[in-house]
Amino acid sequence: MNSAAHPARSGLAPVPAHPIRPADRGRTPYKIVSWNLLRRTGAAVDDVAALVRQEQPDLLLMQEATRGIGFLRERVGGHYAWAPLPGRIHGLAMWSPKPWQTPPRVIALPSGALVHRVCQVLDLGDFGVANVHLSHGQMLNRRQLRRIVSELPPRAAVLGDYNIVGPALIPGFRDVGPRQPTHAMVEVLPLRLDRCLARGLVCHEHAVLPRGPSDHRPIVVHLGPASEAHAPGRFKGMAAAVARLRRADGPAGTAR
To answer: What is d(CA 68, CA 82) in angstroms, rounded to the nearest whole number?
Structure first.
């Protein structure tokens, strides 16, 4: 393993003592990067550190992160949380240059025959973020996704390696990430496996980055809360009000 660089030499600004509050950001979108690192043979900690220095994200989500990626804090400072998959050498990880108000939660997902999956959920204050690496089974990964969104606040985003072919079809969520392929199956068939679904949020920018040593390309999204007029709770309240009016009208209203 490469020798650790001192955080002070990373070129990043010193980490503040207290977590940033949502009110402090104003309307600045959050820059979030998601990357499947490809365990063991893919991106190493120095590759991840280079990505952090280049992109300077507010939040970095990683899939197939091994224990060694934890040395990222020694390379660039910041704050890191790792959630290994049960019985595996790899799992999900999050990094941020600033402290979190609360640490990420780990949620167990419906599991397949071989791999038990988990999800990381982080509360950013303005919205929630889920870091995912879903199963390959096309029915199972959609079940896992439904489990995840049931744990999220009204404003939320789900990013990571979906392993889904075709639309995810999760009510209330829009596919707001980049549309370019992010993975090439056996270097032949290009697939868009790395995605961002969002509810109650606006994606101001998105991009796909160069692949690097992994078999997946990182994706970047700039997310911010949607206006109150487009908040999910507002629509839900309007739908409930319409339903009440229809019930009050009875058969006559239905006929009209």
So the answer is: 10
Contacts of 149 (CB under 8 A, 6+ apart): 130, 156, 158, 170, 172, 173, 199
Q: Does residue 68 have a pLDDT over 90? A: yes
Q: What is the domain extent for residue 76?
A: 7-225
- Both 213 and 244 in one domain: the answer is no
> What does the pLDDT read at residue 111?
86
Same domain, 68 and 140: yes
Mean pLDDT value across residues 65-80: 98
Which CATH number covers residue 162?
3.60.10.10
Kindly state the average pLDDT of the residues 61-78: 98
100-to-18, 95, 96 alpha-carbon distances in Å = 9, 10, 8
Say whether both 146 and 240 belong to one domain: no
